[in-house]
Amino acid sequence: MSGYDDDIWRLVPAQAAPPPTHLVGFVRGLGRPATALDLGCGDGRLSTELRAGELVAADVSRVALERAQARVPAARTVHLEPDEPLPLDDGAFDLVLCAETLEHVRDVQLMLSEARRVLRPGGRLAVTTPAHGRLIGVDVAVRGFERRFDPLSPHLRFFTRRSLATILDALGFDPGAIRSEAGTLLAVATR
Q1: Could you tell me the residue ranges of all domains in the chain?
Q2: pLDDT tens digits for 162-171?
Q3: Which site among 11, 61, 138, 151 is 20 to 30 Å from 44 CA-CA?
């Protein structure tokens, strides 16, 4: 699978556009944790917005990690194997950021369980993912699935506010309030 992810990242220009302002604002609003993990960091465009004392940037794509290291040289990068436990210590982080990643993951339960494991008690999991709600359902019903979703998209999952809250709760997080902004679900859950 990571060969696939490398191929996808090779298609993304190295000097890609900056992340959307609502995502930048969300990440900046997470404060200044002593330790943070950007889980599924991609090329590090949002990692640069994390104001952590120590930052670990982790991804399944080596191509993405090379770009992230160039963008955030102070971060430690960690290559992940898809569908495998994180090679990180229990309780090592105050914050885990999982931005625009969950929708790409085959085993969401494993990923979120591992995020919980590496968070210290009381630590926070910050999640962003595309919002799929009633209006999208109506659009699919009226215009058809194919007009709404690209069959070549690497998205495997589609979350609503309720489904994201449900899975976070089921895996031991307090999901808190989940909001939607600019077509994105934004959540900060507590371990």
Answers
A1: 2-190
A2: 999 999 999 9
A3: 151
